[in-house]
Amino acid sequence: MIKNKLCLIFTILAIVFLLSESLNGKVEIRITILYDNYVTPVTGVQADWGFSCLVQGTEKTILFDTGTRSDILQKNIESLKVDLSRINMIVISHLHGDHIGGLQWILSQKRDIPVYLPAMAKDDYLAKVRQWGGLPLRISKARQVCRNVFSTGEMPADFDPAFSEQSLVIKTSHGLLVITGCAHPGILEIVRRAHQVVSGQPRVVLGGFHLMRKDDREIAAIIDAMKTAGVERCGASHCTGDRAIEFFRNAFTGRFLPLGVGTVLTFPR
Ligand SMILES: [Fe+2]
Ligand SMILES: [Fe+2]
Fold first, then answer.
1. Is residue 244 assigned to a domain?
2. Does residue 173 belong to any structural domain of this protein?
3. 158 in helix, strand or coil?
4. Is 137 exposed, middle or buried (0-12, 13-18, 19+ CB in 10 A)?
5. Residues 172, 267: contact at Cβ < 8 Å?
6. Is the pTM of the predicted complex or chain greater than 0.85?
7. CB atoms within 10 A of CB 131
8. CA 4 to centroid of ligand 1, rounded, Å
9. What is the pLDDT of residue 13?
10. How far is the CA of 98 from the centre of ligand 2 (A)?
């Protein structure tokens, strides 16, 4: 009898928990593109060179990169009705102006949150972030930033240490979701690193892929290798290059994710 009652109570609690998670939209990962140089048919947002996206539905709400101009970032955030008070942490892919331009303004709106920076960030930049109200942390090796969300760790771009970069890897029930800023270390290398540092297959990759200086043969080879690595869906944007984006669109027919400022993507958690 007591056992039956306990069973019933447990079932009710489980249903209530699942309902509340569902109502909070937490059963899915939701990615909103806040800053991008490509446009979508969303009104009230402005496209500009740079990248930023918001990741919701994970344990912490994460702002990944902050675009170039704080006024445009602010305009897009307001148009997309993003509640800045919900952001729990910021992850910066790399220190180029088109990814860190809005950081000071964001921190003026939401203070005392961790700001994960690639390890190459100098002391004086950390001091600035602290002065702006953030809690800067350098990331060198791959690590978890919150439950089921990881940084690849800082990856070098051989041609210039200033292009060292980290990417975000989210572990979902359907494999890994990888988000890149500019992918200067190489989009394929990032996909492979994601697989090395987090158990699971990389299934979705989105962000800037930085392939504008690759020729057709190189782009095709990268796409083939990404598919072999398990990638099923792709959202190539920002600095990927128009021609390379067309290659991805054709190679991932029906599974290409067109990105632009205002795009909202959801994935099962
Ligand atoms: Fe960029
Ligand atoms: Fe860059």
1. yes
2. yes
3. coil
4. middle
5. yes
6. yes
7. 10
8. 58
9. 54
10. 7
